[in-house]
Design brief:
The complex is a heterodimer of chains A (381) and B (366). With 381 residues, chain A is α/β, with parallel strands linked by helices. Chain A is built from 15 helices and twelve strands. Chain A has two domains: 12-225, Rossmann fold, CATH 3.40.50.300; 242-374, HUPs (Rossmann fold, 3-Layer(aba) Sandwich), CATH 3.40.50. Helices cover 42% and strands 17% of the residues of chain A. In chain A, the strands form three sheets. Chain A has a five-stranded parallel sheet with strand order 2-5-6-1-7, sandwiched between helices. Chain A has a five-stranded parallel sheet with strand order 10-9-8-11-12, with helices on both faces. In chain A, helix 14 (324-334) packs parallel to helix 15 (353-365). Chain B has 366 residues and is an alpha/beta fold. Chain B folds into two domains: 17-233, P-loop containing nucleotide triphosphate hydrolases (Rossmann fold), CATH 3.40.50; 245-365, HUPs (Rossmann fold, 3-Layer(aba) Sandwich), CATH 3.40.50. Chain B contains twelve helices and 13 strands. Chain B has helices at residues 42-55, 71-78, 96-102, 125-134, 149-159, 169-173, 185-193, 205-233, 256-269, 286-301, 314-324, 348-355, and strands at residues 30-35, 60-64, 81-82, 86-88, 91-93, 106-110, 138-144, 177-181, 245-250, 273-279, 305-309, 329-334, 360-365. The longest helix of chain B is centred in the middle third of the chain and has 29 residues, at 205-233. Chain B is elongated, with a radius of gyration of 26 Å. The N and C termini of chain B lie far apart (63 Å). The chains are: A alpha/beta (381), B alpha/beta (366). Strand 12 (370-374) of chain A pairs antiparallel with strand 13 of chain B, so a sheet runs across the interface.
Amino acid sequence: MTEPTPRQRGNLKIYLGYAAGVGKTYQMLTEVHQLKREGIDVVVGYFEPHGRKDTIAHIDGLELLPRRQIQYRGTAFGEMDVEAILHRHPQTCAIDELAHTNVPGADRTKRWEDVQVLLDSGINVLTTLNVQHIESLNDLVWQITGIRVRETIPDWVVKQADEVVMVDLPPEALLNRLRRGVIYSPDKVGQALQNFFKESTLVVLRELTLRQTAHEVDVRQGVLEKGELPHAESSLNRQTVSARNGQLQDRILIYVTPDPSTAMLIRRGRRVADYLKADCFAVSVESDADRSHMPPAQREAIEKHLNFARNLRIETRIIPGLNIAQALVDFARLHEVTQIFLVRPHRSHTLPFLERNLVDQVVRLAQDMQVTIVAERQRPS
Amino acid sequence: MIDRSTEPPDAEVGLDPDRAEDAHQKRGRLKIFLGYISGVGKSFRMFDEGRRRRERGQDVVVGAIQPVNSTEVEELLKKMEVIPFKRVEGLLVMDVDAILNRRPQGCLIDGLAYDNPSGSLHSKRWQDVEQLLAAGISVIASVNLQYIEEYREQVERITGKRVTSTIPLNFVQTADEVELVDMPADLCLERTEGASAQDATGPGPQQLSELREIALLLAADVVDRQLEKYLRDHGIEQLWGAQERILVFIRPGLNARKMIESGRRNADRFHGELFVAFLIDPDLSSDDKSALETNLTVARQLNAHIEPLEAEDPVKALMDFAHSHGITQIFIGHSAHENWWQRLWGSFVGRLIREAEGIDVRIFPN
């Protein structure tokens, strides 16, 4: 196939739902049928039937590409065949379950990474996603459901989508479908009702999805209205945007430590930054002594957190300094940060005094910026 | 040709009376399909649900249709039992008596916001619906954002089009279920392009996008109310929520105005709610008292909920309020003149940070 002009990146459309069974796949396939009628060359690149009869019937008449079989520990797993889709090169490709993790042995770890490859090659992608897989919502979702979702996708993947469409269904209707055995096989229904499919849980997730979709619509309005880039990369070296539109631009600085709560802090910082349309950075502070004496486990933990931040498209730095608070505030001032994000000190007194005291030191030094103390979310007992 | 079957065939709500509250034991259930503009496919979704219910053996009839319908809707209507409109003073009106006599389990009513001619029992169609519900008939209805009274002006400013007949927001909020019919603005434009009703004068992508956002947030608010009611009815204490709620705590001598304004801006960005709390203190100096009044005036103008707190144990009062109102962020000020840092952990700010389980505390310099 010859391409006369440089390939344009494909469009991405996400059907967003709040639970299995609300009808995301069905609605996506409905659009595939419609595109086909309009003469678009459209295929289904990956389809997850889940044994749902109506959804399976809905794929009739569509071109479904076969899966690629990957052997792992003696079992064959069918994964999306990216090479086959690239070779077939349709205008548009429908792909179920964006948050899926591929079996080891696949070319890429995550399906959303496969989707990037297809988009880069100029193929439009329709896909499905549940709200609980969005990385920055991980702590809130745990708080709501008690489930720590492991398969997450970075927020920027959603932001990159040209359209996010809410697939809505009232929870009672969803529960009726569940009880009728439409969503899961009958032996699993009881368990589902006990866990994830509790009515109050579903109602909160639904509200969260409505609000998330409203936010996605809002972000895209800025693009329509002012030609703003939806996800301009933050850069420490860029001028503060105040000059660009005359508005005070928030800049958020996240303090990274080896403590596991840092992941929560990064997610929260990312989320707040997205809503405030703020730049977002993450730094750790390292003294000379740290460089030579820090235990490898702590060093790895810091590196892991900085990596995590980078995956969420947050620019990171390791800054030198003996006094953590002073180094943080100096760095923040230099880069016109408006808010410093710190984890709330643990109650346990096993923590070094220094760390317990960091909050008041930073607050004392940061007379020209705000300090946000983020507490870990808790489950109602 | 447009396919509007945007919902799985079995996505449906039972007309199961067992689930009704005691107070509504005999009352029919109300389900509303909400769209952000005509052309998103609400009518199709509604009639398609009616068809599925019929196929599942429920006795469902059509009580009202709208004058202009797509061919897909026409096809669906062929499979349904339609109670004909009656003619009153030359106008076509939903025949409430005929529906009551027919006594179906469920009745589909397309377009809630119609006015009845003078001399009718009710002046509005939604009042007819109330009567059907009271008679134990469940109703599935559809409405567009612009026909909700409380949103009418806002939508008019965006579309430049006036509507005359509306339904109250409260009617939507009391529905047992509200289902949002969402669709990207571009698809909606394509669909309505061919239709005669909307052409060059119709809303563009920017306007559609604004309407869509309003409808999504309206649906979220309805869901939030349902959640609050559910939690109340089941005696569950709410410690979490899907909505950001910001509480600004103002103290004498600190620049509260800046914090309140920032709180408003942040709440707007999050599509959240804003609360402003202060301590009741009869011994305030007259300067502090008038400063407080000024700040509370600002807070009221910025549409904040204002909460006076008992001063005996301020941190406890603040945290009790925050936890019972699902607060996610507390904004407080501190002053360098307070020499407070030496006493931080024994001080108000320090204690607040320690007590703020699951809540962010944002400290503003002064």
